[in-house]
Specification:
CATH class of the largest domain: Alpha Beta
Structural class: alpha/beta
CATH topology of the largest domain: Rossmann fold
Shape: globular
Radius of gyration: 23 Å
Number of helices: 19
CATH architecture of the largest domain: 3-Layer(aba) Sandwich
Helix content: 25-40%
Strand order of the largest sheet: 6-5-17-16-15-7-8-14
Amino acid sequence: MKRKGEKEKERGEKIIEAAVCPFCACLCDDVVISISVAENKIKEIRNACTFGVKKFLSAEKTERRIKKPRVDGKETSYEVAIEKAVSILREVKKPIIYGMSNIGCNAQRVALEIAKLKKGVCDISESICHNFLYQELRKGEYPFYYALLDEIRDNANVIVYWGSNPLRSHPRHLSKFSLYPVGRYAMKGVMDRDLVTIDLVDIELKKISRWFFQVNPGTGEDAKIAEIMKQLVKKETNNGELRELVKDTAAIDFDTIVKITDRLKKAFYGVIFVGLGIFSSENALRNVKAIFALVEALNKEGVKFVMFPMKGHFNVMGAVQLLLRETGYPFGVDFSRNRIFEPGKTTVLDVIKRKEVDAALIVGADPFSSFPKDTVRKLCDIPVIIIDPFESPTAQFSTVVFPAAIAGVEAEEIAYRMDGLPLKLEKILNCDYPSDKLILERLLESL
């Protein structure tokens, strides 16, 4: 019996009608892919964005692939590489297992077991990208935090992108989940919705936004805008006093803030999509607190509003969900300590900086391209084991390198969408590479 969503044609063509795209955390699940069975090649891709198309076709970009396992820069077999990696992990006292946001849930579980077994540190990209968000979430209950994207699509008539440019990071976000799609209470799609954009630069969203604010970096203007809006919602301060607060701030037009706030207060359902422009800014903690306070004030006034962080990597939510279930913490878990979670002490940049770890197992990440230079130098001082389909600066400097199948293209897996919805990733093409999960299982079994 043929699988649902898949048809076989007499000419040797296979069509997968509802493939899930493993590029970003949108995990678009309506991609149609036509495959030549005889050639083991993708012939046509429909409904995917440019990034999604490149991800599916990356299996054919042989010049970018890691061809064979390597030990100390020399190509070898998987057996020899496994033996070397196991010997490293056996000898060290406290390794760090890092990455995990670009691999499937089944592989993530095995990576976590290795961290537990070795009493090491298990960390993911969230400790760098959304650290301040979780610090604020730990302080109290936030019923207005998060919602299913389907709920937002059906209900939201006021949409705010704050420090986020989905046209560059999540190209189908606007068309599938926020501004353009027809919803239960937005029957005319974009005609029934208002878009507000606040960002550091003059981004493309300005052209389709009803209101656009360009704030100056490093000035705290994001937090100031949110704080003024909150006071307007709660009517704590008269408009004359608030106007005085912003008269010297060129980027903030008080009359426009009043108009935007009035629209937020009249929303049937609103959402603030918050991106790395907020979470990774110089005033990140203050910005996050101020936006939380604004959304809380709106909800207390009877306006349904949610705050929604824009996740990047395709399965970062799977890693967060796994760590929360297994440990109660979202990232940066140190199994060698009594207090296993302490941001600023147990997270990846901190343990490497203090030279607390003596080896690194990197899975589906490229820290040599994204970490500060000082951290990278310290990482060079310890043995590094990497599992990845593609060549990268990290792979070039690793002691042991394992090429792997691409999850969602060459290997079947599970991934969590940015709103926490689990989806099955199909195996689209055959390949000779083992999956991330299989390599990690070999390491775990040998340990």
